[in-house]
Amino acid sequence: MINLLLILIIILLFISTPIFVSLGLASFVSVVLLSETEPMILVQRMFAGLDQFALMALPFFILAANIMEGGGLSDRLLRWARALVGHLAGGVAMTTQVSSMFFGALSGSSPATVIAIGKIMYPELVRRKYDPAFAAGLLASAGSVSLIIPPSITLIVLASVITTVSVGELFTAGIGAGLIFGIAAVVYIYWYSKKHDMPRDKKASAQELLDATLKAFWALLIPVIILGGIYAGVFTPTEAAGISAVYALVVSAFIYREMSWKKFYQVCVDSAITSAQVLVLVASAQILGWLLTRSGVPQQIAGYVTEHVGSIVLFLLLINVALLIMGMFMEGVAAIIIVAPLIFPAAMNLGVDPIHLGIVMISNLAIGMYTPPFGINIFVTQTISKLNMLEMMPGLKRFLIVQFIALLIITYIPESALFLLHFFE
Q: What string of H, E and C letters represents the secondary structure of 262-291?
């Protein structure tokens, strides 16, 4: 049955069938044809897969992200980042990177970050004589860090699929990994800008920096509220999601006054659609996971890895290669749902830290967000830059190399990502 199941999934994906249909339909057909299991059990497994407290955070974080995007928070973050680093070599490019990291910490969505920051910063980068390919590569890579920095939707899904992993601990480790990715990009931007003598802004005065900070204060406070509240024991990650949505609405509507009720209604509709798209994928993938587990596939893989791959270094290398390839063709949430149940038993047998493994997996998929040929950030960036993929390739290659180096650091120096987690212990 498993052979038929995998063949059907590959065929359906190859003919561009939506991923949730591919997983669900292949599972149902395999059970009906080659199993005595009642198909109704699969329906029950779909609902059971959604009946998880951690998944309640998803729609709230998505709603919060959409409110922030429409409520003026991204503009204020950009002005603050520019006042902070605009005077350095490559200041405009650094502003793009830094503001993308902060907006990612607000939205948890990679494509949303590319759109919100890119539509403002790409024209400015080109006006400042940056190579359009470099600017496009920067946007696509900077937005991908949203997969790693909390409140990442992918991190929440990973915690719901692998129930032994804490959302709060993943969030904390995600900050460390996100900083590694961000610092690597900033160092490269500085070197590139020095080499090409790129223009920079006049250094902001202390008063201008203070003004920009005060205007962005309410937006900058959101990550502090989310993570601070979780680790102070005031609320759970799921409750933090609801609080962030309410907080974003209050700030957008009553402090910045850029969120009308008409706009809020549209934001709610868009958020409901996005939430449904993610959750239906989670539900259909739960069937696949249940069938694989019931057939003993994860246990077989774990046994094979334990017998033939005795080195953690080699195991992590194989994981990186497999996920980088998968990330080229599949969105992060879908890849995590399919791969995580297969990888984790083998990793636990080898003694790999589950939080570290989760961050390594997410980091690979973050790179996959802008890896040709199907990285979604490439297509989102194309709508802003109007460049085709061949024109974007020189810029994409530069940032892929930089982020590969960051990935190796995170993979083989676990403390680089886990230092905050150990600090809070």
A: HHHHHHHHHHHHHHHHHHHHHHHHHHHHHH
Question: What pLDDT digit, counting tens, does each position of 147-166 carry?
Answer: 888 877 788 888 876 656 78
54-64 confidence digits (pLDDT tens): 677 778 877 88
Contact, 215 vs 80, CB < 8 A?
A: yes
Vertex 325 angle, CA 131 and 99, to 5°: 40
What tokens does 264 get? 């809020």
CA end-to-end span of the chain:
45
Q: For the segment 64-101, what is each residue's pLDDT rounded down to a tens digit?
A: 878 877 777 777 877 888 788 877 878 888 888 888 88
**Residues, the chain:** 425
Q: How far apart are CA 114 and CA 309, in angstroms?
A: 39
* Global pTM value: 0.77
**What sign does the dihedral 301-304-307-308 (CA atoms) show?**
negative
How many Å apart are CA 412 and CA 313, to the nearest integer?
7
For 241-265, b where at least 16 C-beta lie within 10 A, e where not — what string?
A: bbbbbebbbebbbeebeebeeebbe
